[in-house]
Amino acid sequence: MSVLGLGRMGAALAGALLGAGHDVAVWNRSPLKAGPLLDRGARLAATPAEAGAADVVISCLSTYDSQQPVLDAASLRGRTLVNLTSGTPEQARGVAKWAASEGIDYVDGVIMAVPQGIGTPGARILYSGSETAFAARRDVLEVLGEPVFLGEDAGMAALYDLALLGMMWSAMGGYLHALALVGSEGVTPAEFTPMALDWLSSVGGFLTGIGAQVASGDYETDVSALDINAAGLAMLVETSRAQGIGTEVPATLRALFDRAVAAGHGAHAIASVIEEIR
Ligand SMILES: NC(=O)c1ccc[n+]([C@@H]2O[C@H](COP(=O)([O-])OP(=O)(O)OC[C@H]3O[C@@H](n4cnc5c(N)ncnc54)[C@H](OP(=O)(O)O)[C@@H]3O)[C@@H](O)[C@H]2O)c1
Fold first, then answer.
1. I need a surface site. Which of 6, 42, 68, 197 has the fewest CB within 10 A?
2. Beta 124-129 vs 105-112: how paired, if at all?
3. Low-confidence ranges of the chain (pLDDT < 70)
4. Exposed, middle or buried, 251 (CB in 10 Å: 0-12/13-18/19+)?
5. How many whole angstroms separate alpha carbon 203 and alpha carbon 85?
6. Contact by Cβ (8 Å): 65, 41
7. Centre of ligand 1 from the C-alpha of residue 230, in Å
8. How is domain 160-277 classified at the architecture level of CATH?
9. Dihedral angle sign, alpha carbons of residues 129, 168, 116, 49
């Protein structure tokens, strides 16, 4: 097999494959980066076409725009292309269409891990595209991380990726806002973080119930109504301003919650906010 792209992630992918005893050819625009992998037994492909001679070609470049000329040059007809470059669902579907027209078996993937996690039990990689190609290469993909197949629509992995990253960025934004708020009174991250972790795990426990309400459209609640939460967000924005810190993170949610209250969801559960999002 071969790996196109030896940045932080591509090098980790190639390293995991070598660690599992696979024969791996590697190509990178800057060939010097291949050095440590060659020391571990990888073969250097001088061109994308040389790397494209492998049965399975894994591609992991920065962007789809930088990747396409490399794929074009790789001559992949009859090969399986596993595309692990991050992109949008439409970009993934575009490459799937191109691959079909070129006679290439196409599997799109997104990596829900950092390079250091590749090949370890915590790493998960989401795939969509050709189920036949995925099933045929599953043993190889398992070396990189737990493979999860999301269906034949090649855009699905990228859609999940962006949805999950959006949750991560929101949680991180909320955490950074919280650190700034308690920090405005001298509380350190080390003091606050253990409580934040406990809290985040409690919040995680709410997701299944929220999801069920969204699925049913039944927003009745005897736990916590939206208007109480909207009032809490108003207090958070006001307190942030009074403490002299930025209000962007809670202000965005406040505007959304206020809109949902104005639309008549004040007595409903927080899940009803989705009606103002979609
Ligand atoms: N790092 C992570 O934690 C992580 C996690 C999940 C997903 N990903 C995804 O994995 C992909 C790679 O990320 P990375 O962290 O490995 O990035 P990176 O370290 O910046 O490496 C980028 C790679 O793309 C190549 N490249 C960039 N522009 C090119 C061009 N015009 N032509 C040919 N090659 C080009 C680079 O080649 P040179 O070495 O020659 O510059 C390098 O191999 C991204 O899509 C990223 O979103 C990364």
1. 197
2. antiparallel
3. none
4. middle
5. 31
6. no
7. 41
8. Orthogonal Bundle (1.10)
9. positive
Cβ–ligand 1 contact at 30 (below 6 Å): yes
pLDDT digits (tens, 9 = 90+) for 242-275: 999 999 999 999 999 999 999 999 999 999 999 9
Going by the DSSP 8-state scheme, the letter that residue 146 receives in this structure is E
DSSP characters for 96-132?
HHHHHHHT-EEEEEEEES-GGGTTSTT-EEEEEE-HH
Atom of ligand 1 nearest to the CA of 30: 40
Q: Tokens standing for 151?
A: 């269906």
H-only helix segments in the chain: 8-19, 35-39, 48-51, 64-74, 89-102, 131-136, 138-144, 156-183, 189-204, 207-216, 226-242, 248-260, 274-277
Which residues does residue 43 pair with via DSSP β-bridges, in sequence order? 25
The finding on whether 6 has its CB within 6 A of some atom of ligand 1 is yes
Residues 155 and 100: their CA atoms lie apart, in Å, by 14
What CATH code is assigned to 2-153?
Answer: 3.40.50.720
Structure tokens belonging to residue 210: 């929220």
Which residue out of 4, 6, 9 has the highest number of ligand 1 atoms within 8 Å of its CB and is therefore the one to mutate? 9
How many CA atoms within 13 Å lie on the side-chain side of 231?
7
Atom 2 (ligand 1) nearest CA:
114
pLDDT in tens, 3-12: 999 999 999 9
Both structure tokens of 52: 């494209």
- Number of other residues whose CB lies within 10 A of the CB of residue 200: 12
CA distance 64 to 10: 14
